[in-house]
Specification:
With 360 residues, the protein is mainly α. It is built from 16 helices and five strands. It binds adenosine-5'-triphosphate and magnesium ion (MG).
Length: 360
Amino acid sequence: MGKIILTGDRPTGRLHIGHYVGSLKRRVELQNSGEYDRIFIMIADAQALTDNADNPEKVRQNIIEVALDYLACGLDPTKSTLFIQSQVSELCELTFFYMNLVTVSRLQRNPTVKSEIQMRNFESSIPVGFFTYPISQASDITAFKATTVPVGEDQEPMIEQTREIVRKFNSIYGETLVEPDILLPDNKVCLRLPGTDGKAKMSKSLGNCIYLAEEPEEIRKKVMSMYTDPDHIKVEDPGKVEGNTVFTYLDAFCRPEHFGKYLPDYQSLDELKAHYMKGGLGDVKVKKFLNAVLQEELEPIRNRRKEFQKDIPYVYQVLKQGSMEAQKAAAQTLADVKSAMKINYFDDVDLISAQSEKYR
Ligand code: ATP
Ligand code: MG
């Protein structure tokens, strides 16, 4: 059996630097490593509709934004299958069958869903589709027999749920589905990049993002107004680096060569942190350095995006082609699932002859 990747994003906005360090950058590396037999990258529009049912236009508009961000980051349609979830109806059928293998209380225990329900004020009226999206995510992953799912830490409960469904399915109906492994970022701060406001997670829904497509001036403004250490008031004050978002972003993006280029007074991030903690280093200087680092990282992405923006019909063509390929792969798995569950009545010659025997 080969190594297969499935991962994706909800088209609820443009992609941001949290997506980039949490998953996107890794995907491109994995794609280019040549170690994977197939790579499926899904734009999860059906999942986005589970909490945006009243605003389908938002989802519709953002499909192209996510696709452009993908191409800008280096996902290559000749190496990876880029597709739209709703165009692969087999995924719904799988969800329908998996729902019977999961209890309501098990879904209620999912910590990511719990906090998302709170964030969306769904406590008293959770849409059933939203509540059950971990099951639909299990369908997305298993439909492609994915072995590897590169995602941020918030997805851990979803992968665990998927593994449980796979084990349950295989134990009832026989070895059919593949148990996936989660692939988290190596760098700890990238597991869940905080927002520019210091909140626990940069998220489209919280409006605390630096987007990949952002123009240089916008990046600079956002960096200069970022959350730091609220007790670090005067330059001489000793500062904290833990929970200080500017340093967290440096942990995520800064490389040794950046010091020579943009801040030659320091050799390393450890040295910069030590000075900050001792006192005598102002926020503005650190923010200017972060700005330079981010500008360097984001410029080529923005430029590539602008190239792809010139040919939008091509981007839709890529998604159409990818959706057709994804549909083919999912149909094969659905056929395996139906035959394991013995609901492939018309293909089952033994069943037909046994029933004939019964009434002979
Ligand atoms: P929404 O608010 O609509 O849920 P989101 O910003 O959480 O949007 P998703 O589309 O849900 O983005 O997540 C896509 C992928 O990006 C997932 O693998 C998720 O783990 C990862 N991801 C999202 N936000 C972050 C973050 N702040 N840090 C690291 N990874 C992240
Ligand atoms: Mg999310």
